[in-house]
TrEMBL record:
The record marks 17 as: Transition state stabilizer. This is 3-dehydroquinate dehydratase. Pathway: Metabolic intermediate biosynthesis; chorismate biosynthesis; chorismate from D-erythrose 4-phosphate and phosphoenolpyruvate: step 3/7. Belongs to the type-II 3-dehydroquinase family. Keywords: Amino-acid biosynthesis, Aromatic amino acid biosynthesis, Lyase. GO terms for molecular function: 3-dehydroquinate dehydratase activity. InterPro entries: DHquinase_II, DHquinase_II_CS, DHquinase_II_sf. Substrate binds at residues 71, 77, 84, 98-99, 108. GO terms for biological process: amino acid biosynthetic process; aromatic amino acid family biosynthetic process; chorismate biosynthetic process; quinate catabolic process. Catalyzes a trans-dehydration via an enolate intermediate. Its EC number is 4.2.1.10.
């Protein structure tokens, strides 16, 4: 099984940015833990602060991978383009958010990805990525 995690803007700052919301662990160290936990899964990671690069990556992997875990971060609430890219590919996408977006600012409650995602996880911290990967293994 081949799964990619795609993270959007500012998630490269995990461990430094607002640790009270996002925790103190870097995503790179967490990704190493995921690889050990799911050792039978070919797992890849991509992060970009650039909307078009995220769309390009979805197009690149969206017809050949078994699963995509997508945390588009702030682009979730603004990017019709990323939403359309998710709609246009064949690979199932699970949308993940570290924080409970519905307990935050009102604008964060809108998602252009959710209508086309196979599932949505939010508010579980980094554990949401584990849950998303497990969902692919169960399906």
């Amino acid at each position: 099984m081949k799964i990619i995690i795609i993270n959007g803007p500012n998630l490269n700052l995990l461990g430094k940015r607002e640790p009270e919301i996002y925790g103190s662990k870097t995503f790179e160290s967490y990704f190493e833990e995921l690889q050990l936990k799911f050792e039978k899964v070919q797992m890849f990671y991509f992060q970009s602060n650039i909307e078009g690069e995220i769309i390009d990556k979805l197009h690149e992997v969206g017809f050949s991978y078994d699963g995509i875990v997508l945390n588009a971060a702030a682009y979730t609430h603004t990017s019709v383009g990323i939403g359309d890219a998710v709609k246009g590919i064949e690979t199932k996408v699970i949308e993940v958010h570290i924080s409970n977006v519905h307990a935050r600012e009102e604008f964060r409650q809108q998602s252009y990805i959710s209508p086309n995602a196979g599932g949505v996880l939010f508010g579980f911290g980094l554990k949401g990525y584990d849950l998303a990967i497990e969902s692919f293994l169960l399906s």
